[in-house]
Amino acid sequence: MPPILEALDLVRHFDDLVAVNGVDVEIAEGETYGLLGPNGAGKTTTISMIAGLLEPDQGTVSVDGHRITTSSTAGKVSIGLVPQDLAIYPDLTAAENLSFFGRLYGMTGQPLASRVDEVLEVIGLVDRRDDLISEYSGGMKRRLNIGIGLLHKPRLLILDEPTVGVDPQSRNAILESVENLSIEGMAVLYTTHYMEEAERLCDRVAIIDEGEIQAEGTRRHLVSLVGEKDRISISGAGNLAAAAEAVSSMEGVTGASASDHLLDVLADDASSILPQILTRITNAGASITGVQVVEPNLEAVFLHLTGKALRD
């Protein structure tokens, strides 16, 4: 099937500054795609062009088969945009906010009322539906912000740092909602300053810096690009030196060393070869008392590619 979002060769200048330079983004139905980058990397400019808020100097954007420009309307109904800044009315209730924005999308009557009920259920605010937003916590406001983006059942949902400043309970509720959306087939474009969110939610991740995509792929693929390995720590007894020698000759193992009661192994993909490693250890005359696998994370990849922390 064709991708829900297809953004090709996006370029945008601001006077002499090249904010985005040749960015490509494709997101399939049911896929959550993470866009990570330090401040000033070009994330907001890219999102603005994808959402049709900013015209690219070069390149094209299509959503659900419709060309997106600042003046187009047909394709924008397929987009749900949840901005980083809250776009809600504090003097209205949650239900009133949802009804208001639903009418802006052309929804009316019983279909709108039913959809408001559905969205309140998704974002976990059913019991606070008739409370003024001015009485909400920051996390509840964030959840309502997402609900507004979901009202019209978009094919593409754009979430720009949706968990900034929220409490842990609301943050987990937001992440669970995003996971369910992808299961239901919605394409999600997700930006965040929290690396663990990207690792939990995103099927693929693009790392953008200085207006260009530095790398893109699954977590496993990105880790392999910078040579990061899985580390397996195996505690045990017996002839660990012989076990290390037996394991080090295995395909997929790049190193193994033994110390007092501990065997350290570096491997390309620990999950696929761990059973064979354990078999070799026992065959070499060692016993195993514990196993810990530590997989490299996106933080290491990000630092390697950009030389910056995510918030720099």
Write up what this structure looks like.
This protein has 312 residues and is of the alpha/beta class. It folds into two domains: 5-224, Rossmann fold, CATH 3.40.50.300; 229-295, Alpha-Beta Plaits (2-Layer Sandwich), CATH 3.30.70. Helices cover 35% and strands 29% of the residues. The strands form three sheets. The chain has a six-stranded mixed sheet, with helices on both faces. Strand 7, helix 5 and strand 8 form a beta-alpha-beta unit. The longest helix is centred in the middle third of the chain and has 16 residues, at 168-183. The two termini are 38 Å apart. The relative contact order is 0.14.
Structure in a nutshell:
The protein is of the alpha/beta class. It has 10 helices and 14 strands. The protein has 2 domains: 5-224, P-loop containing nucleotide triphosphate hydrolases (Rossmann fold); 229-295, Alpha-Beta Plaits (2-Layer Sandwich), CATH 3.30.70.
What features would you highlight for this structure?
312 residues, Rossmann fold, Alpha-Beta Plaits, 2 domains, six-stranded mixed sheet, 14 strands, 35% helix, elongated
SS-derived structural category = alpha/beta
How many helices? The count is: 10
What is the makeup of the main sheet?
Answer: 6 strands, mixed
Q: How many β-strand stretches?
A: 14
Report the portion of residues in β strands. 25-35%
At the fourth CATH level, what is the homologous superfamily of the largest domain?
P-loop containing nucleotide triphosphate hydrolases
C-alpha-based Rg, rounded: 24 Å
Helix and strand run: EEEHEEEHHHEHEHEEHEHEEHEH
